[in-house]
Amino acid sequence: MAKLASWRANCLPQIKCTHVMAMAVQKIFPDAKVTIGPWIENRFYYDFDMEPLTDKDLRRIKKEMDRIIDRNLPLLREEVSRDEAQKRITAINEPYKIEILDSIKEEPITIYHIDRKAVELEYVAGAYWRGDEKKPMLQRIYGTAWESEDQLKAYLHFKEEAKRRDHRRLGQDLDLFSIQDEAGGGLVFWHLKGAIIHGRKYILQHGFDLLYTPHVAQADLRKISGHLDFYRENMYDQMQIEDEKYQLPPMNCPYHILIYKRKPHSYRDFPIRVAELRT
Q1: DSSP class of 35
Q2: pLDDT score recorded for residue 1
Q3: What transmembrane ranges does the database entry give (predicted)?
């Protein structure tokens, strides 16, 4: 119970801010439709059906949130029936809220008071309604809220330090690796210095021995290892070579197990550490 109470206390500023942010967005952009605004670890977000937002828009929204908070609205929690909730939502023309209401039994309406100096809007991202790419693209605003200004400052400092140490930025600055958009997202190109650090030198320094194994093997090996059953849909088709079926591997471990099985081992051989740089 103590853990649950602590979790609720930590989430409370985030919950309050989702409501305040929705009020601020619709004050500045009257045509914006609200969808859903959950809280997540250390932050909250709200999705809006509206035109794309800019960083300048975020600053306007934050100022409007400050004004709303400064009004010192009373803290109220009102529970209404399903029919009454549907009546109110229909009156303000919020179709997404009607869809949400249809999936639940009842929904309380809440207004919260918070410390405006403990709130910060972070960035905007796109998000499809219900995660369905066939449905409207929404504007998702991320923000964070804390119980005090000092807590917010500590969080923002932590974020800056994490950004400064981000391996993606360091890799670029130190000319270790790059990710080329022309080749595809998330595909790493190791540069000269990066290849040495990431490759043989790193492996050998950490007590591993290097192996090099074939790029293809008989397809039956994948049946024995279980990979064929688990990964069949994501593997390349089999190839017919001299009356045998061969296949590209999804991973190296069956090859390494074959090397291990070639002879008996003494306890003195352990631990065995092997690694492979695949192409």
Answers
A1: -
A2: 38
A3: none
